[in-house]
Design a protein that fits this description.
Strand order of the largest sheet: 1-2
Distance between the termini: 49 Å
Oligomer: single chain
Order of helices and strands: HHHHHHHHHHHHHEEHH
Largest sheet: 2 strands, parallel
Low-confidence stretches: 259-264, 293-298
């Protein structure tokens, strides 16, 4: 039976936890950035970037699969959780060893003082498996409590490191300590809610099933993560340390803003998994509720509609400094004279609405268009506006638009 009140209560707990995390992280990041300076802060963010790139493989990206198994076979929870823990521990250890090997050859451009705590966090993520059990039971208050306590202790530790003018590696170790404290909190709360870690056990058949389902998800997650962060990797390689640090700092701010979808997914997926296959109408209804709820939490897609550009040229329209056309068929069209004479450029991408094929192909086209524009906006936001005159800035804007959509992050 689906408990709508419990679902929304779960979302409320997750929203509060994420808001606290974003707020506290923003304050601590500002203090750390001021202490380290752009170059060293860039090195810190680069180490965390490498962690983020490896994490999809280390976690195997099969959280949804595990939650679905817990929904479908609650009596097998000890075997599911135990097998998941060992699979993720093995994947995390393998990821750490690959990182250490690449670090030994100099291929990552980062020293071992930063790689070691990154490797520890890759292995440590396996201890967060109880979070999947709480997600299945819609008991977000327990994960939120563990996260907030770990966040508070981590923030105090990092502030003390700032006061003592610590180096970059100390802050990476502080993040590892925060992750470890979160894992301890999850285990403690799992025991308080009647769970027994000693009951977890390895199930060979189940582990093989999870592994078969996991490897394409892990591969896809790793490739998507690489694609979305390719700009940050290239910036770290090609720009001077100070400029790279400023760019990576801006990327951290953007990443912190993307939290609503994860909150909704973690709360509604167990209900969707329970309905799928047994109640087709209920499944479709709940799937529609996901999109409705996303709109209510900051993604108002239902109210968006095409508008003529005359709307933005009318009296009382918002003042614009830049205007970008993005549809490929708009490249040859004449643009109106905008009030205030904003700078204009064409950043064309193929029209995803024109793609034919199955639903997967259509969704992939929209995702590619979104990613291409997101990467171009990232490059745009990193431009040194204060040091560019109008002509130089126009050249930069046009250069961004000339990048093929598939390599917009390069």
């Amino acid at each position: 039976m689906i408990h709508r009140g419990k679902t929304f209560q779960n979302i409320a707990w997750l929203v509060v936890e994420r808001v606290l995390r974003v707020g506290a992280t923003a304050v601590v990041i500002a203090m750390v950035a001021r202490q380290l300076g752009p170059a060293q802060f860039g090195a810190l963010n680069y180490a965390l970037l490498l962690l983020g790139l490896a994490m999809p493989f280390a976690t195997l990206c099969f959280d949804a699969v595990v939650v679905h198994e817990l929904v479908r076979s609650p009596a097998e929870a000890p075997s599911i959780l135990g097998s998941t823990f060992l699979l993720r521990a093995g994947a995390g250890l393998a990821s750490a060893l690959v990182f250490f090997g690449l670090g030994a050859t100099g291929g990552l451009g980062v020293n071992y003082s930063l790689l070691v705590p990154v490797g520890v966090m890759l292995v440590l993520q396996a201890c967060e498996v109880p979070e999947l059990w709480f997600q299945r039971q819609l008991l977000a208050q327990w994960t939120a409590a563990a996260r907030v306590v770990a966040l508070a202790v981590g923030a105090v530790l990092k502030i003390e490191l700032v006061r003592h003018h610590a180096g970059v590696s100390a802050f990476v170790w502080a993040q590892a300590a925060e992750n470890g404290l979160y894992a301890i909190g999850l285990a403690w709360n799992y025991a308080r809610t009647g769970g027994h870690l000693a009951d977890w056990r390895w199930n060979q058949a189940l582990a093989q099933k999870l592994a078969r389902l996991a490897w394409p998800l892990a591969l896809a997650g790793t490739l998507v993560g690489l694609y979305l962060r390719l700009d940050q990797l290239l910036v770290q390689r090609w720009l001077p340390p100070v400029d790279a640090g400023i760019y990576l700092a801006a990327s951290r701010v953007i990443d912190m803003a993307t939290m609503a979808a994860g909150v909704v997914g973690a709360s509604l997926f167990p209900n969707l998994a329970a309905a799928y296959g047994s109640d087709e109408k209920g499944f479709q209804a709940r799937l529609r509720s996901v999109f409705d709820l996303l709109s209510g939490l900051g993604f108002p897609a239902a109210n968006m509609h095409s508008k003529s550009w005359d709307v933005f040229a009318a009296a009382g329209a918002p003042h614009m400094d830049f205007v970008f056309t993005v549809c490929d068929n708009a490249a040859g069209e004449a643009c109106p004279v905008w009030p205030g004479q904003p700078m204009t450029a064409h950043w064309g991408v193929p029209d995803p609405a024109a793609v034919e094929g199955n639903e997967f192909d259509k969704r992939a086209a929209f995702r590619e268009a979104f990613t291409a524009l997101e990467n171009r906006i990232r490059i745009f936001m990193s431009l040194p506006f204060a040091s560019l005159d109008r002509m130089a800035l126009q050249q930069r804007l046009d250069a961004i638009g000339r990048r093929p959509p598939s390599s917009a992050a390069a």
